[in-house]
Amino acid sequence: MKLYENEFTNGEITVTYEPKKCIHSETCAKGLSDVFRTSVIPWIHLDGVESKRIVDQVKRCPSGALSFCYNKELAGVK
């Protein structure tokens, strides 16, 4: 799968970040700092945390700057 700038994957899900939408509330980092790291580049690191926790946190993004999708290959969709 080809990833573009501001797309991050752990193989199971892909998280997309749209910086122009971000209001910098830091809801993502406050809720899941192991994934959304404000002082490290790349700032989104999906490894080491289960996908469900990441999805739950992405859904809390107040601006909609973060979104996710399940990768078809691992979700059993053809």
Spell out the blueprint of helices and strands.
Elements: E1 7-9, E2 13-17, H1 27-31, H2 51-58, E3 66-70, H3 72-75
Antiparallel strand pairs: 1-2, 2-3
Features:
78 residues, Alpha-Beta Plaits, alpha+beta, three-stranded antiparallel beta sheet
Account of the protein in words:
This protein has 78 residues and is of the alpha+beta class. It has a single domain (7-75), classed as Alpha-Beta Plaits, CATH 3.30.70. 22% of the residues lie in helices and 17% in strands. It contains 3 helices and 3 strands; from the N terminus they run E-E-H-H-E-H. The protein has helices at 27-31, 51-58, 72-75; strands at residues 7-9, 13-17, 66-70. A 3-stranded antiparallel beta sheet has the order 1-2-3. The model has no long low-confidence stretch (mean pLDDT 88).
Write a short abstract of this structure.
By secondary structure, the protein is an alpha+beta fold. The chain is built from 3 helices and 3 strands; from the N terminus they run E-E-H-H-E-H.
Give the CATH class. Alpha Beta
Q: What is the CATH T-level topology?
A: Alpha-Beta Plaits
Instruction: Specify the overall morphology.
Output: globular
Uncertain segments are none
- Average pLDDT for all residues: 88
Element-level helix/strand string? EEHHEH
Looking across the biggest beta sheet, what order are the strands in? 1-2-3
Secondary-structure content class: alpha+beta
Specify the number of helices: 3
Named CATH architecture:
2-Layer Sandwich
Q: Kindly, what is the distance between the CA atoms of the first and last residues, rounded to a whole number of angstroms?
A: 14 Å
The biggest sheet, with number of strands, parallel, antiparallel or mixed sense and barrel status, is:
3 strands, antiparallel
Q: How many runs of DSSP E, i.e. beta strands?
A: 3
